[in-house]
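Hi W.,

Here's what went into the run:
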Amino acid sequence: MTETSLYVLQQLINGLTIGSTYALIAIGYTMVYGIIGMINFAHGEVYMIGTYTAFITIIGLLTMGVGSLPIVMLLALMTAIIISSTYGYAIERVAYRPLRGGPRLIPLITAIGMSIFLQNYIRLAQGSRDLAMPALVSGGIQFGDPAVFEVSISWMQLIIWVVTLISMTALALFISRSRLGRACRACAQDLKMTNLLGIDTNRIIALTFVIGAALAAVAGVLLGLYYGTINPYIGFMAGLKAFTAAVLGGIGSIPGAMLGGLILGVTEALTAAFFPSEYKDVVAFSLLVLILLFRPTGLLGKPEVEKV
Amino acid sequence: MSENLLDVSGLMMRFGGLLAVDNVSLQVKPRQIHSVIGPNGAGKTTVFNCISGFYKPTGGEIRYRGQPIQGMTGHRISLLGLVRTFQHVRLFANMTVIENLLVAQHRHLNTNYFAGLVKTPSYRRRQREAMDRAAHWLQQVDLLEFANREAGNLSYGQQRRLEIARCMVTEPGLLMLDEPAAGLNPKETSELDQLILRLRDEQDISVLLIEHDMGLVMGISDHITVINQGAPLADGTPDQVRQNPDVIKAYLGES
Amino acid sequence: MQRALFPALFAAGVTFLLTCLVIGVRLEQEGPNLTVVGADAETWSWIGFAVIVVFLFQLFQQPLSRLKQRLPSPDVTGLLPDHKLRARLRPWLIALVVVGLFVWPFMVSRGAVDLATLTLIYVMLGLGLNIVVGFAGLLDLGYVAFYAVGAYTYALLSEYYGLSFWVCLPIAGLLAATFGCILGFPVLRLRGDYLAIVTLGFGEIIRILLNNWTNVTGGPNGIGGIEKPSLFGLEFSRRASEGGQTFHEFFGISYNSSHKVIFLYLVAVLLVLLTIYVINRIQRMPIGRAWEALREDEIACRSLGLNPTVIKLSAFTMGASFAGFAGCFFAARQGFISPESFTFIESAIILAIVVLGGMGSQLGVILAAIAMTILPELAREFQEYRMLMFGGVMVLMMLWRPQGLLPMKRPHLELKTS
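Here's what came out:
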């Protein structure tokens, strides 16, 4: 293989890694939008809080002398999920539930306010500087010709793929098999009707926020370990990217969010391969604008009929 | 051909696999009250939405004063003189009654920014005319005393009348009313009756009416088209329709 | 009470989870090593306090809300003078405020005048965004892009072509309006929340482009040494530039740097007064009413022959042009601009001003802009909490009073009855 094609392969691998975390975050946007039709702008901050809790847990456990890597990672994952889910729940309960049924822009403004609030809350509590952690997992597998270009897949990337795959499968099973999952799907179809049938829709909506937050926390732990640095502002960009992924796949559609995340990750990585890397954000935003303009239903979304 | 104000022929509207309107035709003559009736879900409002440009019909032809209008956007059709009301009142609820009427006269008032900023004499004159027209129609629908009230605070019957007045200030050629009597009490319904008749007789316009209230329809219509399950069932004067066996079976027989 | 116990315990638990790790423990970076430090006793006692308050509040929620219902809600409208008297007092009040605006800077410190100038910029931005969000009901999250266009227009024209502030001001407004038109045209048929995200995307794209187009915009280093406005050609510097003349030489007074500050302030006042006048007029023009009608019901608008795209576009363009003016003035006042000044946070601040003031209400927006810029300056401790406060205000306002502190009043129109 030539140098360029190996290079592209490497970028594809990197893109799939980032893309799968986008997909995890995107599910939170898409599920909430599918049920109550609002863009939960604060979702990116929930992800950011997930990374912070993961860092705190990992460093805490390491200082306490817990050396086993799987245990540390598992505990970090669990703590992050618990704390982020609590945030997801609390945000919905305090800021969104009282506004249900009002004009559409009001909850969006609330969500933006919530996002700014949480960002600065973490900034005040944890400082605004970048925090860096030495890599927990190093090494990986290399292939390709060392003389031309060596493609590498790090263990961390493999972990990200595996964990993403497990989370997605768990979600898919939950949605398709469990009773609550069925209620979730019913709510997405027709919230009012589901309510009339005696299902506590408030509870289902809260559950949606919790699931979305938990998946965002998983993404937070994975990306935090992958990059090794965090600051209170990472949630904004990650949130926007994930939202783009959700829209790309068709907002409201869970498989769409997965697909959209992967496509966006790969597109970004390939852009970064051939252009200055600053422009990869421009590509993501342009993609968002173009999809909304020309195919607002995304790749897998259903069209909406205007009601007169 | 051109004696018809509105000429709908072979109208089709398909949503995915559902054929909501199947080959509907109707002709509205000048200065007539033409009603479209049919059981719930018969596709009456869909016909309305096609004529007024809110849906793009999948087939057929709609002509207004001889000019084909199918597929035009809603606001262009309205500018031609086809103005409609809605099944669920759609007022600008947080604006006052007068403001509602002024918005409706947008096309008469549409001036350039400069004229409005310095209040040129012609701008002032046009504003005054708009206010007078608004006052005239408020008097017609008996809402003058509520002129500065927010539209959302009016009673339901008043909101219905305001919606009609809002259509009338645009000086339409064909007024399309979508179930105007829904939710009104008998007294309000009979007032509405009189209002619609007055519009036809004094304003030289035609009215296309969708209505459930059979008393109202039979009493004031010049012509009735019956639709059932998206397809035309009968067409004629109130007497002809009343005696049509199909109609009795599908519609009147039920109630 | 017993029934409330479980929810109260639950709420207290949630509060504890929300605070324990994130506030109770702090990450500290020492060189390459990251460590965790437990927060001090004071922080922990605050956490405990918060948990207890939430617990008690949830426990006694029912009695509390019953108590609240029994309290009479104060009626402030009765305290205001009646309709006619207010109409008569109004011109006098406005005249008084305007005179005050012009006299005031000569009596206070330079810093205060400077702060007032900054506030006026936010007033302009707030009023401009109010057209888009408040009147037309279009949530524009990329408003700062037009502000940037205005600022960079002046900075670049002044740097490369030596054009003066007064020449650039209308150009900046026009260019920002053009941008608004070009960006607005494709996106305005989108539904409300999509529109918000797309405008946000546009805002970020413009910022990233400014950041990376280094050979023209200077990239992250920005553009410095931007010329200050002059008074009919008189400069406010200590020494005149080539062929120019300074203000103090012309009037034969000694140089005082506060002249410049006061002059900038007065320019800002003029711009703001002009903005208020124009928006006030437009609001009562057919197009202004059409904006509001569109916010209320787009489908009804279409049925009445109003073209939604054109009307939205005019609101978008008009709002953008005011941001352009404000940006041009901002560049002139700062003398230095960089993409840092045009982040999403800036858009969010302007939105918070509009939301706090009451969407659509001009007086409300003005007061909110003043409060939001002056409060953080009054006390240094506020500065730290400024953004937290902005975010909180947006959430609380939407929950408590979505119409804003001073909701818009409908104009009273007299009809001649015949």
